[in-house]
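Deliverable D5.2: sample structural annotation.
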Amino acid sequence: MDRTIGIIGLGIMGGAIARNLVDRNWHVIGFDIDPKRRNELASVRVAIASNAAQVARDAPIIMTSLPSPDAAHQVAQEIADANLSQRIVAELSTLSLADKIRFESILAKAGHVVLDCPLSGTGAQAKVRDLVVYASGNSEAIARCVELFADFAKESADLGRFGNGSRMKFIANHLVAIHNVAAAEAMMLAERAGLDPEKVVDMISPGAGSSRMFQMRAPMMVSRVYEPATMKVSTWKKDMAIIAEFAEDVGCDVPLFNLTAPIYSQAAEMGLGDKDTASVFEVLRTSTDRHSG
């Protein structure tokens, strides 16, 4: 197997994936529009390309980890315009189904095979290969990527038709949104009850009331340190809007999810947009202080 892989988008997720693949003897060719990210990844033996098209020229399989629909559209067009032989392009970002389909359509017209492969996990999880790949699309192409996925994730699955990966990701993120706020509320309740917050984390984490979000984010709430962010509030608000649109499209009421949205919005209004989503604890803390005062 050719162990050359291209990665377009070297942010929190893409950068962590690139580092893990280099460590596992992949030849990683990467590109990001941010020169700081390019320099950081070059220092850990990622070969930095001059643009997205060059990544596609030099790698038979490309993964894209992009921050917005506009970025995805631009990258798809650059690869399509490069007039290359067939490539496999695995799109890892959290985008709406409409944006994923647009991405796929641009590249399919140029003869490429596109996979919808969003990831379950945070940036911190990405660093330690604690991700799940929700792969969907062409099964033969997914099979070619299984070894690749295994070197940066703990699990992957072929979920069938293109778009099912995103549908699964929306369900996962629906739970993350609720569990994160639930963890913050529980920690606020524990604080008001006079319990030792560190002991709360130690004793709740292994028990029936725990969640992965509690285990990851309750310690941040105890320290009240929300950097470096594993998921920024500003980015998460984009993901929340996508899930809300998805739920409306399939005609499903999501009352608990809807209750969390204003809390994330308030976090952004409090200037926490670049902080980790664990910072919703500060929203609840402020609200509790106001009511108790």
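Annotation notes: The chain has two domains: 4-162, 166-292. The chain has a mean pLDDT of 96.
The annotation will be released with the project's public dataset once the embargo ends.
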